[in-house]
Structures are given as C-alpha cells and as structure tokens.
Design a protein that fits this description.
It holds the Pfam family ApbA_C. This protein has 289 residues and is α/β, with parallel strands linked by helices. It contains 10 helices and 11 strands. The chain has a 7-stranded mixed β-sheet with strand order 2-1-5-6-7-10-11, sandwiched between helices. The chain binds nicotinamide-adenine-dinucleotide and ketopantoate.
Length: 289
C-alpha cells in the first residue's frame, strides 16, 4: 500500500516517520523529494528521505497542511483523487475540506495532541523536533478501523481509533476556541489565562457561547468548556499556543477553522455569538486572513 503525504511540516513528518516504521511506502504529493530529520522526545534522531511525487493516482493520502492551506493544496491533485481514496485529515479545527468538489474521498479525521516544531537543516530540508508525545486519535464514525490501522498503531505511540471522533473533535475545538485566540490577543503563554484573573469574565462568556452551540449539536456534550480550557491551560502552562505563534510570525492563523467554524455552525442553528464574533475580528486585525 502506498501513501502520499500533502504537507511535510511538523505533523506530516511525524506521520511519514510512523507510516515508514510500520512498513508503508510514503511519498510526497505535489512536491519533489526532500529530506527531514526528526528528533523524538527520547532524544533519538532519525533521518528520512521523502520521495517526490510520482503523479500516480492517489489511493491513500495524509493531509497535514495548515487548515487554511487545504483546499489550495488539494486543487492540483483533484484528478488523482476519487471516492475510493482514503484521506486522513491531520489538522486542528473543523471545516477545512468544506467545499471540496465531488467526488469526495473517504475522510478519516485525526486529532493530534502532540507538540512539534521545526527549523531549517543546514544544506536543505528541515529538522522537526517532537517536544511532547501525547495521544493521537483517528476515526471516521465506524467502530472498525481499516486494515492498515493495526500495523500503524504498533509503531505510532498512543495512536487510538475512536468511534466518537466527532465528539472528540468538538472537545478539542472548544478549548482551542478559548485558549488560542485569547493567548494570541494578549500575547501570553497558556498559563497566563489562569493567573490573569481579569481575563476570566471574558473567558467564561466565550466558553458559555461554545457550550450553547455544542450542546445543541452533540447529545453527549459534557459542558463546562471554561473548566476544561482552564485545566488545559494549566497542563500546558508554559506553551505558546499555535495561534499566538502564527500571529507573532505574521502567518495566517487557523481561527477561521476554530472560532469561525463555531460561528458558522451557530448561524446554521440560528444562534448569534457576539463574543466569538468580536474575538474573531480582534484576532483578524492582528494576522493576515
Ligand atoms: P506546518 O506548517 O509545520 O506544516 C504544514 C506543511 O504544509 C508545510 O511543510 C508546508 O510547506 C506544507 N504545504 C503548504 N501548502 C502546501 C502545498 N500546496 N503543497 C504541499 N505542501 C504544502 O504545520 P504543522 O505544525 O504540522 O500543523 C499541521 C496541522 O496540525 C495544523 O492544523 C496544526 O494546527 C495541527 N497541529 C499541529 C501541532 C504541532 O505541534 N505542530 C499539534 C497539533 C495539531
Ligand atoms: O492545541 C493547542 C494549540 O496551541 O493549538 C494547545 C493544546 C492549546 C497547546 O498550546
């Protein structure tokens, strides 16, 4: 079985490494061959040669671009994808494949909780550092995973198949919708959301808006987005959130696929979210869209 990889950044490199370890051939989609170095949290260093695109039909694809890059990156590949293609969407946020022209591939949603960053390698290529190895969840709503999942999970630490992936995505989206924009706006690390109590009224109001929408969409919604966001801010206190990092670097943020997705779902339900709308506008003023 051959896998193509679209987006050989932090998570794409990690996926290429674990797929390779599991014995699957991986090559880039839409890009020529390149090299990656990967340092794992145990200090081991792995050099990868990523094969360039072969322009063959794509049967299995890992999409690991930033959410906003998805449709643009997939556009030149459309003729090579079909309804039998399996696409793993290894991204934060939701809705990045909305508007993908038919026939839609079979999409497996993935939630990564690990933390990775990268730097240029002298002489070309990139060096990805996996700073924290945490659970990764895959799912497509079915209880049985595809045949390739078991060998992959033997090599990818803490990789789990989840039947309730949709709920898990919303649980992640809900906390990202609080921590990421607030830390971007106030240019603070995640832990400051606990210590800066002046932010708490806003944090609670934003979280209540999230709960209002999610509880209508998901029968098992547990509520208490504020409590879960504060607990995650505590667990990742020293982290710079990905949105704060994007704003600082002048990159497009993923707010349209986190808070923006929430707002679109709320509008579909006829619910107004004034706090979230203001937050999106404020972050939008800091970063390119
Ligand atoms: P990244 O910027 O490191 O990687 C994206 C890659 O996509 C880059 O290598 C870029 O060159 C490539 N790309 C962009 N457009 C392309 C195109 N048209 N064709 C081919 N390649 C293209 O991003 P990342 O940190 O790996 O994040 C990917 C997703 O995973 C995001 O949604 C992010 O929020 C999520 N995530 C990241 C982390 C982390 O620790 N880095 C953790 C959890 C979730
Ligand atoms: O997912 C994150 C992000 O920064 O995108 C958290 C968990 C909030 C860690 O910073």
């Amino acid at each position: 079985m051959h896998w193509h990889l679209l987006g050989a950044g932090n998570l794409g490199t990690l996926a290429a490494f674990y797929f390779g370890q599991a014995g699957f051939a991986v090559r880039l989609a839409g890009r020529s061959a390149t090299r990656r170095r990967l340092t794992l949290p145990d200090g081991t260093v792995h050099d990868l040669q990523l094969a360039g695109d072969d322009n063959a039909p794509i049967t299995h694809l890992v999409l690991a671009t930033k959410a906003a890059q998805s449709l643009g990156a997939l556009a030149p590949l459309r003729a090579r994808l079909n309804a039998d293609t399996t696409l793993i969407r290894l991204q934060n946020g939701l809705g990045s494949l909305d508007g993908l022209p038919a026939p839609s591939p079979h999409i497996i949603e993935a939630i990564a909780n690990s933390g990775a960053w990268r730097e240029a390698l002298p002489g070309g290529g990139e060096h990805v550092h996996l700073a924290a190895q945490n659970p990764t969840l895959f799912g497509d709503g079915h209880s049985t995973p595809p045949d390739w999942f078991a060998p992959l999970a033997r090599h990818w630490p803490q990789l789990h198949w989840r039947t309730d992936i949709h709920l898990q995505q919303w649980l992640k989206l809900s906390v990202n919708a609080i921590i990421n924009p607030l830390t971007a706006l106030h240019d603070c690390d995640n832990g400051a959301l606990l210590t800066d109590t002046a932010l708490h009224p806003r944090l609670h109001a934003l979280a209540a808006e999230v709960d209002q929408v999610a509880s209508q969409l998901l029968p098992d919604w547990p509520g208490d987005t504020a409590g879960r966001a504060l607990a995650l801010a505590h667990a990742t206190a020293a982290n710079t959130s990905s949105m704060r990092a994007d704003v600082r670097a002048g990159r497009v943020t993923e707010i349209d696929f986190i808070n923006g997705y929430l707002l679109r779902e709320a509008a579909r339900l006829g619910i107004a979210l004034p706090g979230q709308a203001r937050l999106i506008a404020e972050v939008g003023a800091l970063a390119p869209r």
